[in-house]
């Protein structure tokens, strides 16, 4: 039986690392395509790492060699303040990848989108295709939505085997330190006083293993041309999360209300995940408490110089 071959665009990132690790466990041939090399904590020995700017079609043609069964697009510029690079990587990059693989007979193309694509509808949010760009408040969100619409067009016109996963907030070991949960964990581990908002807003956090499991299910399913919300459907209040982390670590001093919330802050943001449950036969399995414990354990070991 031939080895499955997967191209993970953004394979040097947080989700990319965990997905690549799972694919290696399945004995798949894994190639990562990223704008930079992976850092030490996210480098896997058996992954073929390639550097490529996906916003330039000629560079894609030069860098992608051979055939692949699967393509997962996690790529995109992470500093969303740079509007030009954000648009070029999150929309043009996706479009270039689709155009390149259109005649390559791949089994599945997974686009990891964003909850922001669901617009300003109230929670629990359902997947909707009829969102106006003007209802999306950022270049990042508009770029993601434009990429989704391009993929759906290719599916309709050319039967391009795409699935869009609209991800809410992922967390877990090896996430960048500038993200919400790692910031709180590291502050508490160092027994710091730290500023935060009042924490009245609700957000949906999903553990990384559950994110990887839905990507794997999507790759192996016969479903194409669909959008799926990916989260837990069980939002947690930010203040509850901070208190829970503080309690588990038994250190840290949060200073609530020091960071002012934006005037346009959405107070409740979480998905309806019934479509993913029904059509993909998937549901998240890791409880929030267990996910937090695993994540805290990782950062605790890291702070003591232990590899995990």
If you had to describe this structure to a student in words, what would you say it looks like?
It is a single chain. The chain is an alpha/beta fold and 308 residues long. It folds into two domains: 5-169 and 206-230, NAD(P)-binding Rossmann-like Domain (Rossmann fold); 170-204 and 233-266 and 286-303, Alpha-Beta Complex (UDP-galactose 4-epimerase, domain 1). 37% of the residues lie in helices and 18% in strands. It is built from nine helices and 14 strands. The chain has a seven-stranded parallel beta sheet with strand order 3-2-1-4-5-6-11, sandwiched between helices. Helix 1 (14-25) links the parallel strand 1 and strand 2 (29-34). Helix 1 (14-25) packs across helix 6, helix 3 (83-101) packs parallel to helix 4 and helix 5 packs across helix 9. The longest helix has 20 residues, at 139-158. The radius of gyration is 19 Å and the shape is globular. The two termini are 33 Å apart. 43% of the residues are buried.
